[in-house]
Design brief:
The chain is an alpha+beta fold. It folds into 2 domains: 46 residues; 243 residues, Orthogonal Bundle (MetI-like fold). It is 67% helix and 7% strand. It has 13 helices and 8 strands. The strands form 3 sheets. It has a 4-stranded antiparallel β-sheet with strand order 1-2-3-8. It has a two-stranded antiparallel ribbon with strand order 4-5. The model has no long low-confidence stretch (mean pLDDT 83).
């Protein structure tokens, strides 16, 4: 009897495939019943307490201040606008934090593998201290012990690049774009295209391809030369900077970064960089020693081995846990409520305290964090797939 004949004569209640499908259907039905029971219980409890479901309250006037907002906001705006202001602040902290934490984490991770004893010990001490103390404690310490303790405006600390630090926060130069910026930006694009074409062409020239520094130098020259030409040919500077000017009680000009924003960003970057450093270190150690010995045998320098051999292979190991660290940074930004930064969670807390609608507001917060996490995961999964293809 063939396999098809045996399957045809087997009763469906004994067919493994049918039983597997039925099991999944029953499981989904149980989840739906449980969800329906919880929803009915929640609805009846809200009705007994006089709470009204729905999201119509988002159209009502907010009537509360937000200390700082990336988008235009005033108390006469709606709760929906206030909620969007909280989302914008969270996105700003998360995006800038991810970039800076990645940069510091990679440097510290490489330093952990340095043969220099002092560099290795400093990096190891940083990682151990940061990873073994709670983030909330670090945020409170950074805010009260560092930024709140800064001197007054008159005695503010001037940092390189016309950056000033005082009790009112950090003041940095504000870039201003002139009408000539669009023409200069076109030269930047031409420089990138020329650099890519020169990189491809130099790979076909034996002399350039044999010396990696020559190939890189030719491409970097194109990246610098064309923007420099565009800048010199412009009738006015494409970009100028509004420098902060110190007054008696405050600064004028530039961009003000509040102490709350600066403390949250600093804390998230320092904390997450410690975990990223260990991810990078583990990814580098996962590369087989034979690969590195082969690169040394053909005369590659330590920098070339790290850039051309170690990191491309380590990325396969680094990307998955790196995704988790990025998601943790985004979600950990909710701890900003402890020092008064108006992020998504802080603004949402004010909204449900004023409206008496905790359930809809919490659902909005959960959906928003979920959307940000899924989008971040999508981008990194796409890059991870690209890295996997390159390594085949």
């Amino acid at each position: 009897m063939t396999v098809a004949q045996r399957q045809a004569t087997t009763p469906f209640w004994r067919d493994v495939r049918v039983l597997a499908i039925l099991g999944q259907i029953i499981f989904l039905l149980l989840i739906a019943v449980a969800a329906g029971f919880l929803y009915a219980n929640l609805s009846s409890a809200m009705q007994r307490r006089g709470l009204i479901g729905g999201f119509d309250f988002l159209n009502n006037e907010a009537s509360f201040e937000i200390g700082e907002s990336l988008i235009p906001y005033k108390p006469s705006d709606s709760y929906g606008t206030a909620f969007l202001a909280g989302i914008a602040n969270t996105l700003l902290v998360s995006i800038v934090g991810i970039f800076l934490a990645t940069l510091i984490g990679v440097l510290v991770g490489v330093a952990r593998l340095s043969t220099n004893w002092m560099v290795n010990r400093i990096a190891a001490t940083y990682v151990e201290i940061i990873r073994n103390t709670p983030l909330l404690v670090q945020l409170v310490f950074i805010y009260f012990a560092v930024f709140v303790s800064l001197p007054s405006v008159r005695e503010s600390i001037q940092l390189p690049g016309n950056i000033f630090a005082s009790q009112r926060g950090l003041f940095v130069p504000r870039p201003e774009f002139s009408p000539a910026f669009s023409t200069w930006f076109l030269f930047i694009i031409i420089g990138w295209v020329a650099a890519i074409l020169l990189w491809i062409f130099s790979a076909r020239v034996a002399v350039l391809d044999r010396h990696a520094w020559l190939k890189i130098g030719v491409s970097v020259l194109a990246l610098i030369l064309f923007p420099a030409m565009g800048w010199n040919l412009s009738s006015q500077p494409p970009i100028t900077f509004d420098i902060p000017v110190r007054g008696n009680f405050n600064f004028s000009g530039g961009i003000q970064l509040s102490p709350e924003f600066s403390a949250v960003l600093t804390g998230l970057v320092i904390y997450t960089a410690g975990f990223i450093a260990e991810v990078v270190r583990g990814g580098i150690l996962a590369v087989k020693r034979g690969q590195i010995e082969a690169a040394m045998a053909i005369g590659l320098s330590d920098g070339q081995i790290l850039r051309l051999v170690t990191f491309p292979q380590a990325m396969r190991v680094i990307i998955p846990p790196l995704t988790s660290n990025y998601l943790n940074l985004t979600k950990n930004s909710s701890l900003a409520i402890a020092i008064g930064f108006p992020d998504l969670f802080h603004v949402s807390s004010t909204i449900y305290n004023q409206t008496g609608q905790p359930v809809p507001v919490i659902l909005l917060v959960m959906v928003t964090y979920l959307a940000m996490s899924l989008f971040t995961s999508l981008l990194l999964n796409i890059y991870n797939r690209y890295v996997q293809i390159l390594e085949k």
